Amino acid sequence: MTSLRCIECGAHARVLSGEVSCARCGGLLDPVLDLRRLARTRAATWRALAARRAVGIDEVDRSGVWAFREWVLPELSAKDIVTLGEGRTPLSRGPALAPRVGCWIKQCGQQPTGSFKDLGMTVLVSAARAMARRRRVDALVCASTGDTSAALAAYGARGGLPVVVLLPRGKVSPAQLLQPLAHGARVVELDGDFDACMRVVRALGERPGIVLANSKNPLRLLGQATVAYEIARDLGWRAPDVVVVPSGNLGNVAALYAGFSLLRALKLVDRLPRLVAAQVAAADPLHRARASGYARLEPVRAGETLATAIRIGDPVSFPRARRALIESRGTTTSADEGAVQEAMAALDAHGLLSCPQTGAAFAGARALAAAGEIGAKETVVVVATASGLKFTEAKAAIVRQRPLRAAASLPAVLEALALDGAP
Ligand SMILES: *Cc1c(COP(=O)(O)O)cnc(C)c1O
Ligand SMILES: [Zn+2]
After folding, report:
1. DSSP state letter for 139
2. What is the dihedral of CA 171, 175, 176, 177, to 10 degrees?
3. For a Cys staple, 8 with which of 27, 29, 66, 186, CB 3.0–4.6 Å?
4. How much is the mean pLDDT over the chain?
5. Are the C-beta atoms of 278 and 416 separated by less than 8 Å?
6. CA of 57 relative to ligand 1 center, distance in Å
7. Residue 187: CB partners within 8 Å, gap ≥ 6?
8. CB of 180 closer than 6 A to ligand 1?
9. Helix 226-234 vs helix 43-54: angle between axes, to the nearest 10 degrees?
């Protein structure tokens, strides 16, 4: 039913083959669901099924990913599913993008390991369990800017599969370094940036018994596409006009495109939202490629940025992202560090503790609204990709408020607060 198809030459592979690139030409593989079969079910039936599972008590139904299992990996048997209760994240009102231009924030950071990476990893690790019954699986490996490794380690631990992660030394937050260690993964810090880790892990992934868990692996996209399903459902089965997503390796923007495309094919929404890949000036190779209509991507050497999770100069999923942006009539943005900081402060002041990547996306959305590329009547969703709690060190540098100090007595506290002492 589900298969993998080469984005370059169209060659097919089996979905549980473990392949992450085309055996014929080396191109990226895309997951392809059996649309003919899925389209036999009417839109109203899908809506009713989703509504029923949203209040279900079965552990698999309660996962925001596996509640949509017919659209994720229908051939997987329930006993292989490794879930930590991922998905089901809130769609909250965000601060205004411009006068009279509102937005929604899809809170994908409210997850078991604190980022949206859990959505893809529940699928990858579940599939790896199914594969492990038929062939040798020695380890699941990834290169990471910090969130992929946390998610892989957690799901690997739950699924009983060994995990190896490669991290750029000094380029992930203390929380992100602690997470895979706490879950018992083997962590190797490399002297190099994420792009260097990615080159090593690609070669490592060629070895027998190794499953590559980066978003190059098409299985991840199947889970991450559920963000589109949740957004559409929570808007009353409507597509928003614009979805803005912080983008580094470009797997997530491709997953959102796949998700909304499926919904349109199943007649659950009537159009695609314009997808916006939001980058930071320190690492914006996709944004630079826009001028040429994304004809080709010139890798850049990523500079320093608060948004370390998207500090990527040579994104693996560029061919997928190109198609997503062209087909959805989307665009790109590039925020400088000052704009990222201001955007984080605006989200924080709204009660939505922001990670720097989400700051980059919100800044990008604001820039588009200021330029008139997002209109007042449009429904805009900004995807928050991680919890601000993973990035407290980066945030501490920009939060200007400092605690007051006082002796432990009421008069001292009133004095510190400059309130007068009258009751
Ligand atoms: C991984 C990640 C991204 C970027 O996603 P890509 O699929 O690599 O483009 C953005 N924000 C956070 C917090 C991430 O962990
Ligand atoms: Zn091919």
Report:
1. E
2. 70
3. 27
4. 96
5. no
6. 31
7. 149, 165, 167, 177, 180, 181
8. no
9. 90
Amino acid residing at 316: V
Ligand 1 within 6 A of 214 CB?
Answer: no
255 and 123 in contact (C-beta within 8 Å)?
A: no
Task: Tell me the C-alpha distance between 355 and 349, whole Å.
Answer: 13
Sequence-distant (6+) residues with CB within 8 A of 323 are 7, 254, 257
Which two tokens mark 251? Answer: 């797997």
Which of 357, 383, 391 should be mutated for ligand 1, with most atoms under 8 A from CB? 357
For helices 147-159 and 174-182, the axis angle rounded to 10 degrees is 10
* Closest atom, ligand 1, to C-alpha of 355: 13
Pick the CATH number of 91-114+220-396 from 3.30.565.10, 3.40.50.10540, 3.40.50.11540, 3.40.50.1100: 3.40.50.1100
**Can you tell me which residue has the tokens 């605690």?**
403
| Residue 36 per-residue DSSP state | H
- Where are the extended beta strands (E) located within 283-355? 331-335
Residue 333 CA to residue 276 CA, distance in Å, equals 7
Per DSSP, helices labelled H in 328-374 are 337-349, 356-370
User: Separation of 204 CA from ligand 2 center, angstroms?
Assistant: 21
* Residues 6 or more apart whose Cβ sits within 8 Å of residue 374: 97, 98, 101, 241, 242, 365, 368, 380
168, two tokens: 């750029």
CB 251 less than 6 A from any atom of ligand 1? yes
User: What b/e sequence results for 36-51 when a residue is b if at least 16 CB atoms lie within 10 Å of its CB, and e otherwise?
Assistant: eebeeeeeeebeeebe
Protein residue closest via CA to atom 8 of ligand 1:
249
Question: What pLDDT sits at residue 1?
Answer: 86
Domain ranges, ordered by start, for the chain? 91-114+220-396
Spans in the chain with pLDDT lower than 70 = 421-423
pLDDT at 56: 87
Cα-based torsion angle of the residue sequence 266, 267, 273, 278 in order, rounded to the nearest 10 degrees:
-20
Residue type, 97: L
3-state class of 261 per DSSP?
helix
Ligand 1 centroid distance, CA of 214 (Å): 11
**Does the predicted TM-score (pTM) go above 0.85?**
yes
Question: Does the Cβ of 332 fall within 6 Å of ligand 1?
Answer: no
CB count within 10 Å of CB 52 equals 11
Q: How many whole angstroms separate alpha carbon 226 and alpha carbon 232?
A: 10
Ligand 2 centre and the CA of 331: distance in Å? 27
